[in-house]
Amino acid sequence: MALTEKQRKIALGVAIIIGVAAVIAGLIVLLVVLLSKEDFCDKPPSLPTQLYVTETDGNVMIKWSQAGYTCNATYFVQYSINGGPQVEVPIADLQHTVIKPPVCSDMLIRLRTVGESGKIGEESLDQNYTVLPVHAYVTNTAVTRTDTGIVASWDKPTGLEACDMNYSVKFTSEFGEFNEQTASKSVTVQEDIFCFYLRVQVSTVVGFSETWFADVGKVNAEDIAANLSISSENPYLLVATWSYHNEDLCSFSYTVTYKFGLESQTSEVSEPRATFDVQYCVAATLSILPSALDGEYTGVASVMVANQNPDKMVLQPVENVKFLMDGLSMAVSWNVHKSLRRCLNLFKVTARNGNLGQEASCQGTSGCAVILSSFCPSTEFIISPRTLQGETVRKTYSC
């Protein structure tokens, strides 16, 4: 149905009103945004939250994070070298490079911000920095023992020979870490500050900066098993005793190994004393290994064992003597003591029947046979070592 002229005029009027209202609303929104932006940009900028200073190929790179509460901040980097004139550089970016400042120089770096409106941030971000090569490690390191103690020594890092510096020395032992500061290129410490081992590390301290620790060296307790004594008062038993490093402070346990030929005996002890069954006629060594902490100590105290030949010992060389009679023959057998089983053993057996006035003999290493017309009523058997010094064993056989 077609609109009347009156209806068309009404519709046109409504459309015009709605359009005007939309334009007014848009203008209001734009005005609010402009006013808000002006208010935001009018604030003084806040500082960046972080300031980084790094060094690459002798150039010092200064970096920072974005400032807050500002539209387009300008950053002003201020720095002075060794207390000299202050240099200020305006930067729109978030970094600045100082080209090749002198090595070992101290830099005072300051960062401030200026907002788009020209308002300056109320605070500044400061940092002290010393220009050093990244790997400024000490050189010619050494750790030596002297009459006065353990001496750790070093030279200045390469390229920094003309720089004034101090040194931070870190000592590490099984007790933990402790540090010492020195202006000298050496430090002396006493042996009583560690038990197993002492590691020495040094870093250079120049101005505001300290380099990473560099290893100077490590020493182990040389006298971990000093004054080693081996006793063989008992001919069948080897007794080893020793003193140990810093015994008033330290407490050790030991693995002690008595090695003879291809065989060995091992004993775990918590006191400086160990006992073993003696083995004669074979080369032997005694090794003492303290139980190490964290694998740091690996030294072994090792000595040759003396008195390996029983020629001057009073021994009972045979045991478990047995007899087996077969008519006129008597088979005699024995076991050589375990301490002598690696020796060249030869024994003479003498049979004496006192009643008949008869005597016969034989030789063997572990047995032999003697022939008599009779072994009754009793016969004495004398087993004597021929190649070893030792006691004669006497046994009587009775019928």
Automatic annotation (TrEMBL):
It comes from the Eukaryota. Keywords: Membrane, Transmembrane, Transmembrane helix. The chain crosses the membrane at residues 12-35. This is Fibronectin type-III domain-containing protein. It comes from Popillia japonica (Japanese beetle).
